[in-house]
Amino acid sequence: MRIDILCKPDHPDGCQVTAQNVRAALNLLGVQAEVHQFSDTRKMIDNRIYVEPALLIDDQVRIAGRVPEVGEIINFIVERPRYLQEVAAVA
User: Fold this and answer.
1) What gap in Å lies between CA 77 and CA 87, rounded to an integer?
2) Most buried of the four, 10, 32, 71, 74, by CB within 10 Å?
């Protein structure tokens, strides 16, 4: 699993809190994941994200414009296998 956190270079505070919440959620679930934090406006535009911070799980935008709570992140991680099964059934 890959988790990306996107922020603008001039607002690192939201990124730091989001990264802490992601790490707390991963620790509570005991899940291994790659966590990447980007402070790159170009990467945000490429992903069509115009508000920060943004949380992407496996290249899917899950939250943008606010800092997600630990419980929300846990829900996103837990529902991930179900989401992938639904996508596979449609394809």
Assistant:
1) 16
2) 74
Sequence-distant (6+) residues with CB within 8 A of 70 are: 21, 24, 25, 28
Backbone angles phi, psi at 46, to 5 degrees: -60, -30
**Largest distance between two CA atoms of the chain:** 42
The pTM of the full predicted model, rounded to 2 decimals, is 0.80
The rounded distance, in Å, linking the Cα atoms of 43 and 70 is 24
Please state, in angstroms and rounded to a whole number, the distance separating the CA atoms of residues 88 and 52: 30
- 66 contact partners, CB below 8 Å, separation of at least 6: 53
CA-nearest of 1, 25, 3, 11 to 53 is: 11
Q: In the chain, what are the domains?
A: 2-90 (3.40.30.10)
Residue 34: strand pairing partners: 2
